[in-house]
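Final report, section 2: Outcomes. Of the targets proposed, Helix-turn-helix domain-containing protein is the one most frequently requested by collaborating groups, and we therefore present its record in full.
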Amino acid sequence: MSLEEIREQNKRLVVETALEVFTRQGAGNTTVADISRACGLTERSIYRYYKTKVDLIQAAVYLYYDNMTREADRRGREMCRPGMTGLEQIHRMLRFYSHMYLEYPDQIRFCADAEVILSRAGRERDDVHWPPEQFERSDSPLVRAIRQGLADGSVSPRVDVKNLYYNAYDSILGVMQKMSWSRNQLSREEARVRMDQLCDVFTAAFRGDFLT
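The predicted structure is given below as tokens.
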């Protein structure tokens, strides 16, 4: 194995370990020393790959979003079967995204905290990693479902699908983050009902129910 391959392997180990530790302990409560102990590398080695803790937080949150993008694509291909209308696929994908809070609450909390930390540090978002993908260039399951819905007529041609796409993502993520920060945590069933209601509203919007 070349030195460059070893470097990339160690860099990947550091960021994967950082994501695990940040998720478990919280970004603010985690030190580089904690990550060093967890991955078996020295702090000096870690600082060769990531100059600051903020750099490491940024890399970890991007890794999480990349992982979730791949998971969404895999799940989308499983859930959105041939013969389903585009609107049915939209509803399924919105449910998938909203239920991420139930499946990965600690990761959602980490991402919410990371966004605040990065903003305070003056870090600009990397659009390649930070969701949602631009509608025009995206091949995500949700965008594929929207295009299918326009083609089969289950999505209203009068709807501004691009804005709905962004609004649906921002609304779902916003509710997930608020629930993750709230001191009065909802039960899984209460959270599921709230998220499902939000998904139903956006599904109806794609259908054109709220057009005047």
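DSSP finds ten helices and no strands in the chain.
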